[in-house]
Fold this sequence. Notes:
Blueprint: H1 2-12, H2 16-74, H3 81-86, H4 92-105, H5 108-120, H6 123-130, H7 136-148, H8 155-160, H9 167-179, H10 186-195, H11 199-210, H12 217-225, H13 231-244, H14 250-259, H15 263-276, H16 282-288, H17 294-307, H18 310-316, H19 325-336, H20 340-351, H21 356-365
Amino acid sequence: MEDKIISLIYSFQPDFQGRTSIVFLVIIYSIGLQLLIIFSLIIYIFIHRLLSSKYDKNKKLKFDEWYELIFSYLDGDSSGHEFKDKIHKRDYRIFGDFIKEFFLDIEGDDKRRLLNLLVAVDFPDYLFRLMSNRNQWERAFAIYFLGLILYKEKIDLIRKRIFDKSETVSFMAATVLMQLKDAQSIPLIINKLTRDQTKDIRIRLTNILLQYGKDILPEIVPVFRSPDSNTQVKLVCIDIFKNYTHYEVTQDLISLYEITDDRELKIACISTLGIFEDPTLIDFFEAQLSHGNKVVKSLAAKSLGVFGEPSSLEKLIPLLDHTDFWIIKNTTDAIFEYGPEGLEILNHKLKNPSSILLKNIIKEKLNIL
């Protein structure tokens, strides 16, 4: 009986030897797999360095050969046919890196002759084909290079890329069209603004539009006045008016200021009107001193300081007792612009300040330690 019980107990014990064998095999397999991965990485790095070294060496050889040919061409010692024989389609990418240096360094007739050479070797056609590549960086590279060489043929293909699904490509196209001074692309860029309403896109496209100069104003004004233009588009237009002090839209800005409930739009309108420094707006700014928005109130005070209208001074003085830093600061600056009369008011307030904040602002303005 005792032997049967012992035998039964052993039958329920796990096979430790079998389990140990399995664990050992798993460890061996894991180590082997890691060694295989490490070995594969070493082989990959070795092959990559080998190919990179070969690529760099080949690139250097081609650059040396092209340098000699291009200087010969620019010096008038060759017609450029030799160059065309040395450029193959597989070399276009390397050739792009090579030619970029020349276009950044040369001007005048040399740049024009170099463009003729690029056309002769079909390089622009290669760039136009690249604009249809699935890779956004390839498309952006092609557009960038067309702008670099100031190539205006088939410009409609670049215009279409303003609406590329990639923001990178879209902005590259808009930038290049600006470099090419293409006035026809201005409505397209504005149209792009109506589709994309994020602040970042608005700022970036505004900067592109500003580089067109004052010529853009006739295109911008109708867009600003259109009831179909959204808030972001109107903000872009206002930014452009602000840069070029376009008085024609003064009444438009006042009307928009009065009807809009959008805080950013309202502030943009009054700050732009302040930059215009139009004396006919004194009554408008005086009325805004009682506005409930602190930013509007402070901007109105700042604008009135430019005009120095006596009637405005009495309306500004009460704002010195406000609790908002910018209202006190802009009011102090405005009163200071009134000369001796304003200085007397500030000195009086300095002796009897309504707050420590007011005292410190006036002391800083008057350079009093």
